[in-house]
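Chain A, query sequence.
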Amino acid sequence: LKTDFHFAACVGEPVEVRLFAPVDGSKIFCGILAPMEEGCVRIEEEEGIRAFPRAAVARVQTLFDFDGAEE
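Chain A, predicted structure.
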């Protein structure tokens, strides 16, 4: 996901967020994409919502569950 349009279109989808520098010991976070707020990429995790400044985000990509796909 690169543009604001991409982020808005994928709200509610599972995503993987990769950061340039570690936060809480990790550079990779997975969760449900929440609407962007104040220039931050936000994801919903089991613990709550986590926000990352867009400048700190290296890449955001949607995740697809191949186990749940119909054959």
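Helices lie at 4-9. The chain is about 10% helix and 55% strand.
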